[in-house]
Amino acid sequence: MRRKLRVAAYAVCVRDGQLLLARSPAPDGTPEWVLPGGGMEFGEDPYDTVRREVTEETGYRIEVTAFLGTDSLRLTLPGRRLLGRATDHHALRLVYAGRVTGGELRNEVNGSTDLAAWHDLTAVPALTRVPLIDAALRLWRERPPAGHLATGSGSRETEAVE
């Protein structure tokens, strides 16, 4: 089985009781809301990654105001048609708090997301969203000193994805 590690950085940007989110297609094509952010480029500092990704996906420039913590997810992905090998995928997500300092809200063009929008924090639980949003909001609200949520409440163990 092929093993893959992906390190990414995401921002929790809350303003006037609203959370900044981007929309991305799920593997089955269904649109789902995600935190603005994404994968680190080789040699890139995660602090720079989160700032770059937020700008790419939302049009906003942000100031990183805090490192909130980590979220770790391990998935077993089925083999692809051409390669035929299953993948043991480990996603390590670094979560930051951010404050918008400039730019204008816009949608990403030719990227991994297609829409950027502010959502009332009270409406987030009703959105079709990735689980990282819930974990990141818990990190933002609770600010655990070690930057880690208790197992079973944010970080997830191995899951199988069909």
Description:
By secondary structure, this protein is of the alpha+beta class. The protein has a single domain (2-160), classed as Nucleoside Triphosphate Pyrophosphohydrolase, CATH 3.90.79.10. Helices cover 15% and strands 46% of the residues. It is built from 2 helices and 8 strands. The chain has helices spanning 46-58, 131-142; strands spanning 2-15, 18-25, 31-34, 37-39, 60-77, 87-103, 115-120, 156-160. Strands 1, 2, 3, 4, 5, 6, 7 and 8 form an 8-stranded mixed beta sheet that branches. Strand 2 and strand 3 (31-34) form a beta hairpin. Residues 153-162 have low confidence and may be disordered.
Low-confidence stretches: 153-162
How far from one another are the termini? 16 Å
Shape: globular
The biggest beta sheet reads: 8 strands, mixed
CATH class: Alpha Beta
Strand content: over 45%
Give the total of beta strands.
8
Secondary-structure map:
Blueprint: E1 2-15, E2 18-25, E3 31-34, E4 37-39, H1 46-58, E5 60-77, E6 87-103, E7 115-120, H2 131-142, E8 156-160
Parallel strand pairs: 1-6, 5-8
Antiparallel strand pairs: 1-2, 1-4, 2-3, 2-7, 5-6
In short:
By secondary structure, the chain is α+β, with helices and mostly antiparallel strands.
What distinguishing features does this structure have?
162 residues; alpha+beta; Nucleoside Triphosphate Pyrophosphohydrolase; 2 helices; globular; 8 strands; eight-stranded mixed sheet
